[in-house]
Amino acid sequence: MIYQFKCEKCSEVKEVDSPLSVGPPKEVTCDCGEKMHRVWGNSVIHIPEYFKATSDSLSPSEIGHRMNSSRPSGRRKVYY
């Protein structure tokens, strides 16, 4: 996850990348020496490439249609 921090003294904004399991850094120091404060609401979750869809050209309705289409056997659902 990418966290943003801002310095009150010089207004510098710094982005810090930290794993979601670890959480945000406890303290970030600016280049001017002041302690930076976290900017809330601007955090970004980075999605790895292997989680992304393979095709951007499909609309949500096309994806739903493909997921609900008939199986090779012609049956829509398998009942056990």
CA-CA gap between termini? 42 Å
List low-confidence stretches. none
Category from helices, strands and their pairing: alpha+beta
Number of helices: 1
The H/E string reads: EEEEH
**Describe the biggest sheet?**
4 strands, antiparallel
- For the record, the count of structural domains works out to 1
Could you tell me the radius of gyration in angstroms? 22 Å
The strand order across the widest sheet is 2-1-4-3
Helix content: 10-25%
Instruction: Give the strand tally.
Output: 4
What is the global morphology?
Answer: elongated
Strand content: 15-25%
Mean pLDDT: 75
Topology, element by element:
Blueprint: E1 2-6, E2 13-17, E3 28-29, E4 35-38, H1 60-68
Verbal overview:
- With 80 residues, the protein is α+β, with helices and mostly antiparallel strands.
- It has one domain.
- Helix content is 11%, strand content 20%.
- It is built from one helix and four strands.
- It has a four-stranded antiparallel sheet with strand order 2-1-4-3, with no helix packed on it.
- β3 (28-29) and β4 (35-38) form a beta hairpin.
- The model has no long low-confidence stretch (mean pLDDT 75).
